[in-house]
Specification:
Blueprint (H helix, E strand, L loop, with lengths): L1 H16 L16 H13 L11 H23 L7 H5 L21 H17 L8 H4 L2 H21 L22 H4 L11 H20 L7 H8 L1 H12 L5 H21 L7 E8 L2 E8 L5
Antiparallel strand pairs: 1-2
Helix pairs in contact: 1-5, 1-7, 3-7, 5-9, 5-11, 7-9, 7-12, 9-10, 9-11, 9-12, 11-12
Amino acid sequence: MRFVYHLFTLTACVMLTTTSPAQTDTSLGGAITGEQFTQTVDSLAERGQKPHIYRMNYWVSGSFALAATAANIYAIPNIIKSKDSLTDAELAGLNPDQHNGFDRWALKQDPSKRDANYKNSDIMMPAVIISAAALGFDKSIRKDWLRIFMMYYETHAVTFSLYNFSFFGPAFQNKVRPYSYYDDYFSVDQRNGGNQRNSLYSGHTATTAASTFFMVKVYSDYHPEIGRKKYLLYAAASVPPLIEGYLRMKALAHFPSDILVGYVIGATCGVAVPALHRFRDKGVQVGLTSTPVGPGLSLTWQPVYK
């Protein structure tokens, strides 16, 4: 259900950003060669247009994102939520001292505020996801809304797939949540659920970080003139996921180290997916040529649009 909720919020982003005319895809699908890129630039320049910053093969990206979505929807009830309950022996063996001082911070919270923090964390995450629609206020970004949305959907598909299927996620890890350690406040029936084995890592934090870092990456790519100021934007992008992680810790759902792992994975996805879609400018081209006197090598330099 949580992934379906993600899809709903992403759909809302589309509705918020489709106020501009539908864009025409003038790029070549998939990876392109330097010669193809130059030809594309020349063709667009003749029409007084700028080439797209990101290449996009909608069939490939759409098929991948939909396949990942289907896999994630399957994984939630059948892998992540289907773990065996903690046994009485496992609950009795939980020892706060086995954690380092940094992680023990999660075991010194007020359990009476757990529900409120849990609710707030569930509100903040989709709010941050939808906030990516703010990119639509930028005219140069808004004209490319469809490919930006596709990349955003792809980013979240990758982020959630890593949570559900990577070695670092709960499919392979069974780290017990801080919630189960509070034996003086919660009953055994509350503490022994199979979902309590899913502390590593924080999917909420990863999703939030992927959203904010994606926004900064896209904005920076469209506005290279901001130079090193982009690092200030990345610093600002760190704030929402860290707040989300703090709320998840206060909700007794994760240890601080789980939050940091989620932060790193989410931030990496938010930057890496747009980076993989960037056009590769290749102004210098080396190739074979044929002349009346025979074959030879050709070396061509042509500045391309940046």
